[in-house]
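$ run holo --ligand "T5A" --emit tokens
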Amino acid sequence: MSESAVKWPSGRGRFVTFEGGEGTGKSTQIKRLADRLKAARMRILVTREPGGSPGAEIMRHLVLSGMGKLLGPEAETLLFAAARDDHVHTVIQPALNQGTWVLCDRFADSTRAYQGSLGRVPAALINAMQRVTIGDLKPDLTIILDLPVEIGLQRAAARRGSGTPDRFEAEKPGFHQGLREAYLKIAADEPARCVLIDANSDPDTVAGRIWTALRDRLLPTPASVVSI
Ligand code: T5A
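-- output --
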């Protein structure tokens, strides 16, 4: 089905998040999806976490430089939460209210996977922070890109070149394997919201899988198709 044959839902925008381990191709695929949706004359906002608003970008620098790690897992999680609070209230929610579709590179599942499953921050604390930062806001669709850890890390290293690995890229291979498993569990626990995408193919093939998932999940009825 071409984009021109689709009657896109109107009203509030849709919130689509991309998740996965390091180097799984989130940024690459968000850009491709945004280009395709823009070609269909959709209003699209591409954003990211940590970051996405001026205040949250400052927090991004703190956590990715490793300064947050020095404070311990709970405090580091609070930094991510503070960044998310600003991002949700100043950028994501207003855009959705105006009918813009928001494509976000990482969101609350990253906190569950990185800080919850691997950092051992208690779920009760993460849930409490989530109530404050995002309230009832939930992604309409979460694309989880799945890739063997060694391939993701190779891709991330190739992209980085001679640059220094950030705070999470520098973690040991066991951390990244645990991360992959945490995401597989999130996908299995919430199948209505999450789609697991095999990211171990060329970018065009992965983009095709994502497009199919988006079409099936967010344009589910034949009534969405306009004859041309
Ligand atoms: N974090 C974040 C938390 O701990 N808690 C939180 O709550 C949040 C929100 C953010 C870090 O913060 C942590 C998680 C992260 O460690 P980041 O710099 O934003 O860090 O980086 P990541 O989100 O991890 O993303 P990456 O930059 O590692 O990679 P992407 O976006 O998944 O991958 P991408 O698209 O940049 O691709 C990587 C390389 O692979 C190539 C690309 O060209 C690029 O060179 N590539 C492919 N090559 C072959 N085949 C394909 N299909 C390819 N797709 C892409």
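-- notes --
Residues 20, 22-28, 48-50, 64, 80, 105-106, 110-111, 114-115, 155-156, 158-159, 166, 168, 202-203, 206 surround T5A (CB under 6 Å).
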